[in-house]
Specification:
This protein has 316 residues and is an alpha/beta fold. It has helices at 12-25, 42-45, 57-66, 80-85, 87-108, 141-160, 186-196, 215-227, 248-256, 270-278, 286-292, 300-315, and strands spanning 4-7, 30-34, 49-51, 71-74, 111-113, 116-117, 164-165, 167-169, 171-173, 199-202, 210-214, 239-240, 244-246, 263-266. Helix 7 packs parallel to helix 9 (248-256). The protein is globular, with a radius of gyration of 19 Å. The structure holds 2-amino-3-ketobutyric acid.
């Protein structure tokens, strides 16, 4: 049985991953940590919780040691748009937090997971069906952090034998905890606005394709990769994973199947649009499928039906 520590447990992925891991491995075997207290997060509160600033290496080590963890899931990070607004903070938090988490994992012999992102690609990367191994020259601070992070995780595996594993997540769509400061956030906001206002104004331009995935598939992918037979892994970190390549009009059309009067307008944000245009239109998840059996259950229509049902229950 695993004993897992999660950083960023109150974030978009963390809040749901904490609950899912507690279902699978037992509540007391999942130590949730975040820089703030878990008010209004009943699932995170329903088990061990520690306050932790991931840039504090000593505190991180002490918490991990106290709970005798054997698995480290490092999620705390600034997303792309926030990182572009505060690049130095992003460097310190995203890279400082990661190297601290890898060091703790090396010292305590933990298996290690951290997500990379489609943000690790840049304008010179092939745009369609982006291969697993390809040009990575991102033009954002977030992307620079993600590429460096992918390399650092490979380094800790080769140099120290830390069992590092990771995926490149696309935009993640969920109804539990909203994302904050990402470029793909429009694909979550649109569902909230569809329910509350019947209309949405997108900051991402019509025709801008990006990869997305529904949160249940993202959680399943993390667990499957961490449980995968290591002898099958040719790559260890930064596996391309995706469920759909979509643009705002695709989401609007999927919503209109349930809310025919839904309308979509545009007021494009040049900063987030430029980030989106520097990313791939679609990525190729073949390596993840072949090496550890990645699969996504939700396409756009199935995800939309579930998002609208769940959000109606939550918001109305
Ligand atoms: C973001 O938009 O910054 C994230 C990501 C794709 O990594 N959702």
């Amino acid at each position: 049985m695993k004993k897992i520590i999660i950083t960023g447990a109150l974030g978009q992925i963390g809040s749901e991953l904490t609950a899912k891991l507690r279902d699978v491995y037992g509540a007391h075997n999942v130590i949730a940590t975040d820089i703030r207290m878990p008010k209004d997060h009943p699932t995170v509160q329903a088990g061990p919780f520690e306050l932790l600033d991931v840039t504090d290496a000593k505190a991180m080590y002490e918490i991990a040691k106290k709970h005798q963890v054997d698995t480290f899931m490092h999620l705390a990070a600034l997303l792309s748009a926030t990182a572009e607004a505060k690049p130095l903070l992003a460097w310190n938090l995203n890279m400082g937090g990661l190297v601290n988490a890898l060091e703790v994992s090396r010292e305590l012999g933990c298996q290690f997971f951290t997500p990379s992102s489609i943000g690790a690609f840049g304008p010179s990367t092939p745009k369609d069906q982006t291969p697993q191994d390809t040009i990575q020259r991102p033009t954002t601070m977030y992307g620079v952090n993600k590429v460096a992070g992918e390399l650092l995780c490979d380094y800790y595996y080769h140099k120290f034998g830390v069992d590092t594993r990771g995926v490149r997540f696309p935009g993640l769509i969920s109804y539990v905890t909203p994302p904050g400061g990402g470029t793909t956030d429009y694909a979550v906001e649109i569902y909230y606005k569809a329910i509350l206002d019947g209309t949405y104004t997108s900051y991402i331009a019509k025709g801008t394709y990006m990869d997305m995935m529904y949160m249940p598939d993202a959680l399943q992918a993390i667990i499957k990769l961490m449980e995968a037979d290591p002898s099958r892994l040719k790559h260890r970190n930064a596996f391309n994973v995706t469920a759909m390549s979509i643009e705002p009009e695709d989401v609007a059309r999927a919503i209109q199947k349930h809310i025919p009067s839904f309308t979509l307008q545009y007021d494009v944000d040049p900063v987030r649009q430029a980030i989106a245009e520097s990313w791939p239109n679609s990525i190729d998840p073949t390596a993840a499928k072949e090496e550890w059996g990645f699969e996504a259950e939700y396409d756009l229509d199935k995800m939309t039906a579930d998002m609208l049902t769940q959000l109606k229950g939550k918001l109305l």
